[in-house]
Amino acid sequence: MAVSHSLLANGSLQFGGASLLSGFGRRTSVVEVGSAEIKPCLKPFSALCKGKIGRGGIRVTSPDISLPNVDLEALDACNDEYGGIVVDPFGLPSSANAFSSALRASLSDWKSKGKKGVWLKILEEQAELVPIAIQEGFNYHHAEPGYVMLTHWIPGDPCHLPSGPSHQIGIGGFVINDRKEVLVVKEKYSCSCSGVWKLPTGYINKSEDLFTGAIREVKEETGVDTAFIQMVAFRHVHLVAFEKSDLLFVCMLEPLSTEITIDEDEIQDARWMKFEEIMSQTYYEEDHMSRKVMEICMAAHKGCYGGLAAHQLASKLDGKLSYLYYQDS
Asked: Which residues of the chain are modeled with pLDDT < 70?
């Protein structure tokens, strides 16, 4: 009997208006298309049915004949140290149908083995796979240029995977010269402190140390070269840009040059200014936190306050040298 057919996303065959579902571990038969055998790309997976394609479609010749299970490919992945799974993004199937079937089979296999969290990185060129993963219970974790990271918690209890990045990190540089003048700038684009003379500030780059970022930002905004002395203070606020928390670390820097060359894309103006003149602005009378930061910086400059120096030490966490900030005794 000739019937119409199509292969569904879940790996089943559609016959007319009904589908013959392929279940994992279910004993069924094999479908042959011409001389080629259709094998789903999942593991473990059994065959579906046996038939031939003629001009009228598929003829099912032996639907009740069971064949042994065949080894089929699952998603390439490795175990993490927390009992979870990390999927290899470069080994994902190229087609949406194959990915859908492989993902379902893999989740079933991982669940049977007691695995917990699954990390699925999907590259930009694989974007069509994202909706399929979401449909299978994955959630967005974070995104970077070129990829999106999805996660899935297999157990039924609350998810124990760490949340995505929750903070943005800023730095500020307090630079004071031999004439007791502080290096300050006026931001070109600013809402909260428009027209205010303030410390040069900015955001840390990826894989950049805090004090290195402070030196870089001062150089970019004012053209002044500096050297790090100590970490003076930091403040922590919440629910700011994109509802993230914000950390701002203030560093005391020693000037190595004095000539100012501003970055006209970001800075309206920059100059060396007496501390008293800076603090006489209405902004510092109203903003108690900013005022306290400036007072602490000046106290550190006078030797009345001890900040945190940066000490390079090896960590067993990654086996590399990194900086620990603490106060010298």
From this structure: 1-72, 190-191
